[in-house]
Structures are given as structure tokens and as C-alpha cells.
Amino acid sequence: MSHQILQTSVVLAAIIVAHILVIKLTFSGYPADYLRIAFTHTWVVLICITALQLFVGFVVFYVLSRRVSSDPVVQLLLLPGSCGFLVVLFPGAIGLLVRSSVSADLLKKKLIRRLIRLNSWCLRMFGREVQRCLERDNIDWQRSCGKWSFPGVDPPGVGGRIRLLYEYHKEQIARERKKSDLMKMDAGVHSGRKFYLLAKHLGRNRLHSEIASPPGPLGPGYDWGGRPERRRKHGDYADRKNPDPNPNCSRSYDNDRLMRAIDAGGTTDYY
User: Which end of the chain is more exposed for a tag (fewer CB within 10 A), N or C?
Assistant: First the structure.
């Protein structure tokens, strides 16, 4: 009896670890705090799915345990752990392993296909919840609701701080995504679009903290505080006033070498 409890625990632990790995790899572009919030909203469904996978995993272990070595390490750790990973990561391989013990029709048309669909549905459900958390936060700051209500700052003021923060972090964001066009999200782009990029780059808690305590000016002689329009004329280096008080932050996307380096994934500064 104690052996069965240990084997069941190992199968369960392997299933949980496999789920964590899949979520980490699938949603690697999302901060951990948004993943935690999504988990708190979906934990009941995830537990039900895990329980079903535990049942399937233990059945597979029971079938395979009669064919492999009777070594305690294999029976108590390696085999149950492998079955747990198999159910989550490679459910299609179950049919190849136990086909002589269970009817092929049941495996191919019912168990395997439904298990694959279940795993796929689980990921889509979790992804929708993560996106819903982002959308909810983006709406809340525009309505000054809950966590995203900042004393003494109205929504337009919060939007200005978001635009200012984006100017601070836009080069890092563009380099991470290898998209130089993100450097050009200036006037005419709603703060809500920048919020999504900042939330994925900084994380929920850090973004909230930086909005609550915004940074100072971007550089000497640079007094822009996040107003909707930063400049009214597009141009290049030749169009700037001489001397430019802050060339590193002003119109940085006019630098063609920098833009090409971002698209190529380079990390060298080209100022």
C-alpha cells in the first residue's frame, strides 16, 4: 500500500512539473506575476485536469510495470515519473507503449485524441486568462479602478507617465523583440498600446511601481513629461537644432545604424 502511495505521488509530481515546464516555455514572453494571477483564476479547472491526467498516468504505469525491471528504483521512481511526463508532454506515445494491453480502437479514437485535445485546451484556456488579466489592468488604469488608481493622478496623467516610461524602456523592448518599428511609437499612439508592451517587459508590479513613482526628465534640456504630442515635425539629424541638448533620447529612431542593429538582434550602441 505504501508503495502505491509513493508511486501515485511520483506520477502526480511529474505531471505538475511537466505542466510548469509547458507553461514556462509557452508563455515565456509573459511576466511571472501575470502567470500567477492567471493560475489563481483557473486553479479549479487545472486541478480537475491534473486529476484526470493522474488517473491516465497511473493506468499507463500499471500496464507498463508488468513489463519492465522489478528494480525498486525503476518501479518506485523512474517508471511512474516517466508516465507522468508522458501523459502531459507526449500523450501520442501512450498508444505505442500499451497497445498490446488495450484495444487499438480505444487508444487511437478515444483516449489518445481526447488527451491531446485536453492538453491543448488547457493551454488555450490558460493563455486566454493571462491575456484577460492584461486587458483588465489596461482598462483599470484608464478608469482609475482598484490597484491602478493613483492618488492625485487622473487617467490622462497616468497615460502621460506611461508614455514617459515607454521612452525610457523602448530601446530595450525593441531589442528584445528585434522590431525597430517599436522605436517609432511616438505621437498618435494611444498609451494603452504602450501599456501592453511595458507590462510584458517590466511585469505587473514593477510597472505599477514605476507609474506611481515616475522617473525624472529623460536627459539634460529634455523637459517632456509625457504629453500626447512630443514633436510636430519628422526629420533626421540635419533637421535638429544645434546643439542638440539630448541626442541619445531625442529622435533616436532617426539613427539608421541603430534601427538596423535592432532588427538584426545586435546589442551594440550606435549613437
Answer: N
To the nearest 10 degrees (0 to 180), the angle between helices 191-202 and 155-177 is 60
Question: Over 157-216, what HEC string results?
Answer: HHHHHHHHHHHHHHHHHHHHHCCHHHHHCCCCCCHHHHHHHHHHHHCHHHHHHHHHCCCC
The full set of domain ranges for the chain reads: 2-140, 150-264
**Local structure of 219: helix, strand or coil:** strand
- Evaluate if residue 234 carries a pLDDT over 60: no
Backbone angles phi, psi at 222, to 5 degrees: -115, 95
Q: Identify the pLDDT of residue 217.
A: 54
Mean pLDDT of the chain: 80
Cis (ω within 30 of 0) for the bond into 243? yes
Give tens-digit pLDDT for 93-143: 766 665 555 554 555 557 777 888 888 899 999 999 999 999 999 999 999
Measure the CA–CA gap between 64 and 48, rounded to whole angstroms. Answer: 25
| Integer angstrom CA distances of residue 146 from 7, 141, 143, 201 | 45, 8, 9, 22
